[in-house]
Every structure is written in C-alpha cells, then in structure tokens.
Amino acid sequence: MFSEEQSTRVLEIGNYSAGYAGKLFAHAGCDVVRIEPEHRKACWVSSRAMDLFLHHDKRRVRTFDRELIANLANKADVVLVDGESADEVLAIGFESWQTAIKVAITPFGMTAILALGGYTNLMGDPDRAPLTLPGHYVDFQSGGYAYTAASSCLLGRHKDTIDIGMLEVIMSLSQFTTVMWTCAQTVRSRHGNDFWSVVPTTLFRCKDGWVYINIVPGFWDPFTTCLDLPELTLDPRFLTNDLRMKNRDALHEIIADVFIQWSRSEIQQRAEVARIPLGAVLSFPEVLNDPHLNERSMWQRINYNDGDSVLSPRPPFVMSAIKRDVLALSEPKDAMDG
Amino acid sequence: MAKGPLENVRILDLTHVWAGPLATRILGDLGAQILKVEPPMGRGPQVYPTVPLGGFIGGVPGDEPWNVNAVFVKLMRNKKSLALNLKTETGRSAFLELVAVCDVVIENFSARAMVGLRLDYEHLKQVNPQIIHVAMPGYGLSGPYSERVAFGPTVEPMSGLTSVMGYSADEPRATAMAIPDPTSAVNAAAAVVTALRLREQTGEGQLVEMSLHESATSYAGPWLIDTQLGHEPERIGNRHPKLAPHGIYPCEGEDDWVAIGCRTDSEYRALCDIGDLPLDRGWTLEDRLANQNVLDEAIVKWTRTLPHESVVDSLCDANVPTGKVLDTAGMLVNPHSISRGFFVPLEKGTPMPGNPIKMDAISSEDWEPCPKLGEHNEQVLSEWLDYEPDQIQTLYDDGVIVNRPPR
Fold first, then answer.
1. In this structure, how many other beta carbons lie within 10 angstroms of the beta carbon of residue A90?
2. Which CATH number does the domain housing residue B98 bear?
3. Which of A7, A54, A116 to mutate to test the interface with B (most CBs of B within 10 A)?
C-alpha cells in the first residue's frame, strides 16, 4: 500500500547517495526519516558541512536495531539504502522488508565484482598520473538516479526493487567516449585541460586567475574579435578546426599572450560582447558571491545549533510549486527518544 | 516501446547536444513515451563534410549518414521522431496541438529561443494548463548571465570545481569531460518526475527551470558550506583529505595505473604486508595523513615493478579497495559490466551504454533503437492528432515535415 501523496514516507539508510536521494524527496515535500549509519564513509568536507547539505528537513534517528529498522522500513513507501557492498545492504535485512519501493545503491551493483569505471583515465595530463574527480559527484549522480527511479514508481503506482550500481552510473557519464571506440576505433585519451577535438578549448591563465574557453567552429570568427586579433580568421594555419588542431600549440601561445594581459572580468566582458562560451575559474567564496546566483535566489539559509546558519545551494531545478526559503537541520535522536 | 512505470507519460523532446537528450533517454528507459520533435536539419545535412567525432554506427556513413551519427544515435533509443519545422506557422500550430495531448515539454535552447518561437510557457499553458515545461538554458531564464553562451566545459569552472581539481595549488585542471551536462541530465529527469508528482496533487502544470550552471553549483554544495564553516578546500591531486594512502599509482606497463585507497588501519596494514612496504604498520590515520609523501613513495616503488593484474588481484584478495584505471576499450570488456549486461548491442550490434537503473519493470529487451529522421511523422500525426493522410501529405509538400534533410 502507498500512503497518501501528501505524506509519502521515505526511509533513508546510508551515506551520500541515499542522502542525496533523500534530500530530493525532502525537497519535494515527502516525510523523510534518516537512520544514521553505524560507520560514516570518508567525506571530502567536514561532517557538519555534509549534514547541512544533505540532511536538512529530515528527521534523523540513531539506531542499529535491525528489528526496529525493519518496522520502519515496512511502514515506508520508499526505502533508500546505500552501502559499501551488496553484502552490507543485505546484512541489514533489505531483502526481507515489505516496502513497496526499495532502492539499493552500491559501488558495483548487487551482483558485485570489483572493477573501476573508465572515467579517471580521461582526466589529467597525458604524461602524468590520471586525475580522480574530487568530491561526491558520483554519489550524488547515483542518488539522482535513485530518486528518479523511485519517484517514477510512485507515479506509476508500481512496486519494485531498484538496484543502482555506481560503476554503471560512472560509465553512463560519458558523451562520445564509448562510441568513439566502438564506431571510430579510437580510444579517447587524456590531454590535461584540453578538450582536444575542438580547438581552442582549454584553460588559459589571465592577469588574476584562469578562464576556460570552448570555441566550437561556429564561434571561431567572433572569438578572434574578442581577442582583438580579427586577422586570425585569414591566417592559413587556423582556417578550419582541423588546421587549428594541427597548429594547436601556436594558437594556444597566441591566446595565452593576449589573455595574460587581461583580468577575468575584462575577458568575460569581451566574451559577452562577442557571444562566445567562456567561464572563469571561481573559488568557492566567489561562487557564494556570484551576482547571477544571488539574483536567482540560488541560496537557501539552513538554521542549525539554535542560532547558527549557513547558505546552501538549493536543488538545481526551480519550480513555482516548491518555495522554501529557510530550512533546518535537526540533530539525530536515539530511537528511544521517539 | 520500452515498458516501465512512466509508460503513461508523454514527453515532447526539443533537446539537443547532450544534457537534454540524456535526460529524456533516462525517462524513456523508464517507459515514458518520448517524441523527439526535430528540426529538419537537426541531424546535419544529407552529405556529411567530415566524419563525426564518434564515427558512424556500423563504421560507415552509408546512404543516410544523418541517421547513423553515433554520438546522436547513442542518446536516441526509445524515442519516436517527428521532423517538424517549428519556424513555420503550420509547424508551430501542429506542435501546439501536440502540447494539448502531452504531459511534458523539455528543451535546452538558449533563454530567448522559445520566446522567439512564441512557444514559451505562457503560450504552452494556453493550450494545456496542465503542461509541464522544463527549460534547460545554460544560465537559466533570468539574471545577469542569462544571455551568455553556455557549454558544459565553460560552466564547470564557474561552479568552483576547478578550484579544487588538479595536481597542485598552481596546476588547476578541468575535467575536460563537460561534467555539468550529465549532472544536469540526471537532475532534469528528477525535475520531470517531481513536477509530475506535484501535478497529481495540485492538478496544475508549471514551468521548471533547470540550468547547467545551477546543477554544477548544487553538486559543489558541500564545499560551499564547508567554506562558510571556515574550512578552505585545497587542490590535492589524487589524495583525499581524510584517507591515506589514497592515490593513483603507476604499474609496469605504459600508461598503466591502479587506484588504491585505504579506509581503515587494517586495510593499511594489509597493503603494507602484501607489498612488503618498508612502512610503520602501527601508523594511525593521523600519522598517515602527515606522511603521505613517504607512503606514496613506498607504494610507487612497489607497484611500478608489477603488472597491474598482480597488484589488483593481491589487494582485492585482502579486501583493500583498488581497481585498474580502465580506458574505454577495457571498460567494455570488463567482466563486471559484461556480467551485468550493462552495454546493450542495440544499434546494429554496436554496444551502447545501458541504464544504471535495474528493476523488474524495465528491461533492455523492450528497447527500440534510434529512429530514422521523421520515422514517426505519419504515426504520431494520425494517432495522436487524428490527421488525415492528405493533411500529412500537404505538410510534406510544404516542407513542414520531412523524412530526410532538405538539400
């Protein structure tokens, strides 16, 4: 049985993937109860920061009692569990719960063997170690898939068990990498900041930082005016993307010499006038002060600790039907406290 | 078409490039009826001037190269195709008739495009007050950057990610993978189901905004909050702020690497034993974090003398988290992926990335491959809108619908 829509009950057990899925359910107005995990997975930030980001607007319970967890699971419409392995998920009783919609998120799926997923190999410099993606992107992507699948089941009044393998989430993150191999017989390789197939597309140093440009062929002519070097459109070395790839080093040198004389804001202004895609490398304090994000009400205040508060980015989708300006983070309670 | 919990949902898909088409592919895999409304030249011209980056399905362009561009095809399974020119009054009018019988319109044009076509939410809701319009412009529909040109790679550094990614403090690196695109895709799919569930409660449609910029910024949330708590994140290469050792280490072969990370003291001790590393087995996490250069030096000295299989196998046997850094070719023959059937030979036998969501209600056995341009023109116009054959022929004659790119 599903509970009434207004009070969809979601039980969340785990770390960052289940936490992100639970955050989206809380954002959608569901009643989310979180069981704090016995062991916290290592986090890229402080535990407090992660709690504030993921667990506001949830009730948080601390218990390791399997029977109590099973009772809570059986009363929920959706259970979200993530674990280090399928065994870990099964050990808390996942298979025996009667919940209509059960979601398990594990690094390698419920039919686990160990492997890694082809993404890291593409990041970093060609003559140095590949670079891993910092932060919790794959956790959150997995949580996003979990939320979408479970919400689809709620919408279709469909009962199911959903298995999400994070390895497969990683493998679904690439745009042309797989077909480049299967259809064009080319193994994509890593090239530092350079997107490689479209030139110029890379990071350049400027007077006060760095900017990234992505000049697909249609933007080449306006880009040369942005540089104040319109004569480049006639330069035989750079007439086509193929030629620009061939003469990449020479072109990068020309651009680098120009950009180093300008600040990020000067370059950005020129890019806007020329209507070319360009983004400045921003620090986190700069992101928090970004005028565009501020004007678009990107930040939600989260109250915690009886008086402290921080600003958190709201979920990325803006809906007129969901408006909550101030959120709250509750401290976890022992199950006996109710 | 694919079966699944969303099979009663009809979505008009105006998206292009990556983020939008991936979002609708996710929804199509869950059973939604996706109608790709494509401009007549949306797949390129009749003759391709160059081989596209991802090549052609089957390896050759054939007679209809626009239908076998692999990058496009990869994102188009489980969709119907209506090749309709929205810039004509008749095409626009037909589109609005479709809006009246559909649940969702999703697009990732620039902020001004739908307004220019007079197909923005204000116009859509006049023909269907319950319609959900998901708009995915790079920087959103409002604000000082809304007119900027946005691609995933240029939006990424504006989220703060580049400020923490790279080899060292003075060596920032972008992913060069346009990561805001796939994150936006997943968030857009989440937005669609959220809006549909809200509509069940309220009976009302709505405009949903889902920008690349805000998607990327949202995922940086933990760092943004930690910054306010006084913790300034650093650019630390392949290290982890709370695990040591943690890195990517060279093996014997050329460009052959393994990732190793120890979460516990016991995993660290097992690593030391297996590699016979000249390290203090009694080091705590604090000790290890303080001696990362020493750890890395010892591990590199061990791994670089061995083939990666030897390193990975021995560490896996001892439950030390590790894995080979796979390239694309390796990814496709990875026994784990094969055993889970992740890659699906849907398009002329070409393996395509599958769906990370596994559940009983959905199966790749139901999937349909990428349709040809305009393949469902007649079917959709007659079955969804009751158009008569002569009406449809007139649309062909006037170039409002096509089934091959115009010359």
1. 16
2. 3.40.50.10540
3. A116
